[in-house]
Structure formats: C-alpha cells, structure tokens
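Researcher: Next sequence.
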Amino acid sequence: MKKIFTLLTLALCALTLTACGGGAPAKSSGGSSAPAPKTEAPATDRKAADASSGKRALVVYFSRADENYNVGYIEKGNTRILAEMIAGATGADTFEIKPAKPYPKEYTPATEVAKKEKNDNARPEIVGTMPDVSKYDMIFLGYPIWWGDLPMPCYTFFDKVKLEGKTVAPFCTHEGSGLSGTDRYIADATKAKVTGALEMKGTTAQKNRDEAKKEVMDWLKKLGYVK
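Model: Next structure:
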C-alpha cells in the first residue's frame, strides 16, 4: 500500500512540473508586477523642450507677400519665413502684425505708400487682439527694411504693446541695406533691452531655405536660445 501511495505522489509531481514549466509566465494579479520599461520622448519633442531652456518666447513679425524686390510674386513673405523657422526651433508663440488696410500687391505702389507713411510718421491701424507680453521672457521681432526703417505698422504695435524692460531680439530681411540701425530705433521706441540682431537678404530666405535655416540656428545659438 505504501508503495502504491509513493507512485501516485511521484506521478502528481510530474504533472505539476509539466504544467508550470511551459508557455508564457502567468500575469500577477497584485501590485508587485515589474514596472513597465521607461520610454523616451521622441527626438523632436526633446529638442523642442531643450530649445527654449524653460523660457517662454513670442515671435512678433510684420511681413508682406505679393510682389517683392528680386523675388517676384510670392505667397509667403520673406520675413514670415524666418519667423516660422524661429518659432519652430524655440517652440515660441507667434503674432503677426497685420495692417487693417493691406498694401498694394504691386511692388512700386507698395513702396510709395510705405514712403508716405514714413515721411508722415504715420501709425497705420493694425488688426487682431494684441498679445499679453507679460507672459514672455523673450520677444523675437521680425520685419523687412523699408526706406531704411521698420514698416510703420511696427511702430503702431509698439504704441499698443508696452515692451519696456523686455528683451527683444530683432531679425530683418532686406536686399542690401542691412540692419540700417533699426536695432537702435527699436530700443528708442520701446525702451526694451535689444539683443544682437539677425539680418538676411530676402532672396536667401525665399530661395535658399537651407542656408537661411543655418543662419537662423547660428543666431539662436549665439543668443543662448538653442543648444
């Protein structure tokens, strides 16, 4: 009898080992299961998070499409191209300065209107809800050079949005005039702290995007805004 009991016990053990030794491990029903492996954020998300270094930035820009010098009729203004590159690299918000009355589509008539506005020291009406700049550490300010100055709607913006004490980083497009001292004009008009500026030919922004992006990134690195 004892021998039969021993044989039965050995048979049961063999069945138990067979059942537990194969297949997928059983899932735990308690809270002691192994933690899920950590997943990294996508490279693009990490870059965006690193780019702004915890600072909040706003890209404010004025740009005109239609017929432009040396590039013909364009759908996206030269300065807007740079503004979008800067916003993409830093994760900044954007605000476009839009005149209530659009400039003529043709290049020469547009320059004539711009010249009269400058001579009159005009403040053309602009549309849209003005941004609350108190939320931002850095204001990137973009514009084309018109008659050696910022377009006058930019000054309308300065009158509406107080930038005194803010850090403003200017960037501009031109076709040979360079910055034209507009960094000083911005400092005088706003009482802001103005950084070194980025100036670029509109033809580069419009026709050589790779070179334009490289110049934008080099500038942002100098500002300490991207790594």
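Model: The first strand starts at residue 57 and ends at 61. Residues 45-222 form a domain with the Rossmann fold fold (CATH 3.40.50.360).
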